[in-house]
Specification:
single chain, alpha/beta, Aminopeptidase, 2 domains, 8-stranded mixed sheet, two-stranded antiparallel ribbon, 10 helices, about 35% helix, globular
Length: about 325
């Protein structure tokens, strides 16, 4: 079924919980038909045709007609192993969405898209981008920054909705500062959510691709946990609370301090790898060796991938190994 002409009013008639659960029922590995159908249903009616690299872009101008200076982002692919539809379970007492099979929920980054769509519906000024291919190397955002659309010249901040938990405003990604402390603090202030705090332990998402052309680039918690695993779940109540805060925020009160392209590192791993790369339950004396491996992977990802493949590893093997590192102690069911 094609949703190319689906009226936008479908989104307006769905409640927040209904919309979020419906969106998470689509398993969307990059390049699959299910991903295309999802985009045709939920993104095309609101944001129009994607660019040549699969990114959906929509601008809500300021009331005076001027261009906005903040870019809000998510991505429309997931890390599911297979495409198709899945049954999403919902516990109304815990206000939690989850699944009961061997793949992930896909709240990463479906919840981010939910927030983007609701902000556009509320006419919050901003440049909205839902990127392609984040889970396979941020390919959509990399291409977009390379093409350097005109709106980037006036953009002071890129805010991604793609962080687990409920407490983070990311200031560093892979050890490099991407947002100033002042900006992170002001973002938490304008949202009125005191649980959100500056966090230097970010890994990597689309906003990191913008750091050489935009000053403040961050990622904020949207309430999912155990992402990329079969134990992934979404705190639905938090997602709705965050949505309300994003819609009512006074964005004019943000503070911008970081300069685009500036180099500043966390210093935890000799000025390169940030604390976000510190391992799970590792002895402190192992940290240097771990950091060296992480740096090699960052510098030579293609060579490392080829070596792992030659040794007989595939994506399923690596995902299973990563899952074994995940702490499930906070899962509420």
């Amino acid at each position: 079924m094609s949703y190319a002409n689906q009226p936008v009013r479908e989104l307006k008639t769905m409640g927040d919980t209904e919309l979020l659960l419906s969106m998470m029922s689509y398993k969307r590995p990059e390049g699959t038909m299910t991903q295309k159908i999802f985009c045709e249903r939920f993104l095309y009616p609101v944001m129009g045709e994607p660019d040549r690299d699969g990114n959906y872009i929509h601008v809500v101008y300021n009331d005076d007609g001027s261009a906005p200076n903040i870019c809000f982002t998510a991505h429309h692919d997931t890390v599911h192993k297979t495409e198709g539809m899945q049954k999403v379970l919902y516990d109304p007492h815990l206000d939690v969405a989850y699944i009961d099979h061997n793949e992930c929920l896909g709240a990463d980054c479906t919840t981010g898209i939910f927030l983007v769509l609701r902000m556009i519906e509320a006419k919050v000024p901003g440049i909205y981008v839902v990127h392609a291919g984040e889970e396979i190397g941020c390919v959509g955002s990399t291409a977009l920054v390379r093409d350097y659309p005109s709106w980037l010249r006036n953009t002071d901040a890129v805010i991604s909705f793609d962080r687990y938990g409920t407490k983070s405003v990311i200031t560093h990604q892979m050890g490099r500062r991407t947002a100033s402390e002042s900006f992170a603090e002001s973002l938490a202030e304008v949202l009125g959510m005191p649980n959100l705090l500056p966090d230097p332990d970010g890994s990597y998402t689309d906003s990191n691709e913008y750091i050489d052309v935009v000053g403040e680039c961050t990622n904020i918690s949207v309430g999912y946990y155990s992402q990329h695993t079969k134990k992934e779940y979404q705190d639905v109540g938090y997602a709705i609370e965050l949505k309300d805060a994003l819609i009512t925020a006074d964005w004019s009160k943000l503070r911008f301090e970081r300069l685009a392209g500036s180099l500043e590192y966390d210093g935890y791993y000799g000025g390169y790898s940030g604390r976000g790369w510190k391992s799970y339950n590792r002895p402190a004396e192992d940290d240097t060796a771990y950091a060296n491996i992480a740096e090699l992977i960052y510098d030579k990802p293609d060579e490392v991938a080829a070596l792992l493949e030659a040794w007989g590893f595939d994506v399923a093997d690596l995902e299973d190994g990563i899952e074994q590192l995940t702490d499930y102690s906070e899962i509420p069911f």
